[in-house]
Write a structure and sequence with these properties.
244 residues; seven-stranded parallel beta sheet; 7 strands; single chain
């Protein structure tokens, strides 16, 4: 299937490793011009060099940085068509261990960065009459996971923003969707201590691979997905139990 990404410009957040890097690799393989963004410049440069991508070091949880990165990408390539808002996950913890500072930092990382990326990107996409915004969230947006209070609370907020924005920009040729990764073989899973007991709860019987998530992401930001907007697609091996 030709996804129609050869002439498109994509900005991918959190792209130095894990899911973000997987998405950047997939978009580059489909022929898109890619800019990659992450906090850690050494691993980001390695990713950019491997993909022939533009490296834009930034901490997207810092106010103003999402807009700076979006505008730098558009200035470098002369346009911006695709934004993949991916900024990683907040620390694990329950109610007793999460204080005001943790809530503030997690909100900036998970929610505010996503809003600021979209706010900066939409004017560029409107000028081009075409755009794709994809929020990388989590299965916690649909079903809470024990000891992930911050993620359980903030990921649904991103879905609410995505769905609302999708309705406002659809007539501009811009789609807005979310993708909900399940338990996937990344450094994040190591940090969370995911073990055999968790894997046993996945109907597919295994962890997902970043390339599997990336394939779904590439479709959602493609020309072929032009009539899909306001959607939230789980890529979780069947872990989610809800009907919707």
């Amino acid at each position: 299937m030709n996804l129609g990404l050869e002439a498109r410009v994509a900005l991918v957040g959190g792209a130095s490793r894990g899911l973000g890097r997987g998405v950047a690799e997939e978009l580059a393989a489909e022929g898109a011009s890619v800019a990659v963004c992450a906090r850690e410049s050494v691993s980001l440069d390695a990713t950019a060099n491997a993909l022939g991508a533009l490296a834009l070091p930034a901490d997207l949880s810092v106010g103003g940085e999402p807009a700076r990165v979006v505008n730098a990408c558009a200035e470098h390539f002369g346009r911006l068509d695709i934004v993949v808002a991916n900024a990683g996950g907040p620390p694990a913890g329950g109610f007793a261990s999460v204080g005001p500072a943790e809530w503030r930092d997690a909100t900036a990382l998970v929610f505010t960065s996503a809003v600021e990326l979209a706010t900066a990107a939409v004017p560029h996409m409107r000028r081009g009459g075409w755009g794709r915004i994809l929020f990388v969230t989590s299965i916690t947006a649909r079903q809470p996971v024990d000891n992930l209070l911050l993620s359980n609370a903030l990921r649904p907020a991103v879905l609410g923003f995505a769905h609302s924005l999708a309705r406002e920009v659809a007539r501009d040729g811009i789609t807005v969707n979310a993708i909900l990764p399940g338990y996937t073989r990344t450094e994040r899973m190591v940090e969370l201590g995911v073990g055999d007991e968790t894997v046993a709860e996945i109907p597919a019987g295994r962890l997902g691979e970043p390339r599997e998530l990336a394939a779904a992401a590439a479709f959602l930001v493609s020309e072929r997905a032009s009539y899909i907007t306001g959607a939230a697609l789980p890529v979780d091996g069947g872990w989610l139990r809800g009907m919707f």
